Amino acid sequence: MKRYIAFIVAILILFAVGCSNPQTSGGGTPDAQTPSAPPTAQASTPAPPSSAPSPTPDADAAYSRHDIEFGDGDYASLGRLMEKCGFGLMDTDEKGNTFYNFEALPGALTWPLWRAREQNAPVESALVQICAIKPSDRSGLPGYDGRGLGPVSILEVRRVEENPNYTDDGDEPYYIVNEKTEEFVFGDFLLLFLNGYGITNHSYPVVSDGMESRLEMYIKEDLDKVIEGVKAAGEPWWMYYMDYCNDEVVCLSQHGKGSGPSYMNYDIKNWKLK
Fold this sequence. Notes:
24% strand; eight-stranded mixed beta sheet; two-stranded antiparallel sheet; alpha+beta; single chain
């Protein structure tokens, strides 16, 4: 009886051990757990290209310097006038293309500060009209350790002041121009800001060598202008902000064109002589 019971217990043990073994594939090794297949990616359908036209540049936006020769717009027109007057230098871009560059390089914007240091004088300002440009017999301006800086030219101007009796009804103009002229001097390191007599809304820094002849040609357009019954040839018309140290002009910035009282309406005579 005891043998019979032991035999049954042995059979039960063997049965239990067999059930606890993992399932095997044909080779007797446990099957590797098969990872679940990745979800099928749904192909996204690209949106059809927009039929809307690309935005065009604003007509008043600044133009590339390359547009001066080949483009349209106010900036390009200003560049062509600057080239006509001889302002600017030829330059080359990173691709080796040659183009005309009338704008001053960033370093030139510090010229007025340098000239003020050489003159050892404070910078003064005035609103003026340019009457003439003439050669000077002065040998040079202060600079380069006292060796002189030339060539030197004469700028003949008339000072402009706001009229204290100005009225909105037009009986009194906004400006009064002093009929008496004054002479200042300038050299090639004069910093200019020009707008082509209103071609552009803002004045741009202009660079050039031979500044006397370039500026003389530029103001000739102003002096030669005739407005029937208002302005005769030879009379200055446009205004400039002039910064100077002693008698040297270090910066000239052409006055903006506008319709408000603080601007010059260059279609009418908004000033009188005294």
